[in-house]
Design goal:
mainly alpha; two-stranded antiparallel sheet; flat
Length: about 70
Amino acid sequence: MTIYFLGGSAGTFVSGLFWQHYGWAGVVGVGVAFTVASLFVNCFQPSKCFPNKQSDADHGYLDGCQLIT
């Protein structure tokens, strides 16, 4: 949760800075840049939890990782 709130406050801070200098175009640019950065992180560092058996997936477990449902 700490990282979640740090990310939110960093996004607010950076958006505020860009609002002062570039207006709405800067805020939108920050939003797009953060979204693309998040997409790259998720694409190039996929989760290490993959189903190894169908029975594990049926019970909500993926290679030792329990799914939160």
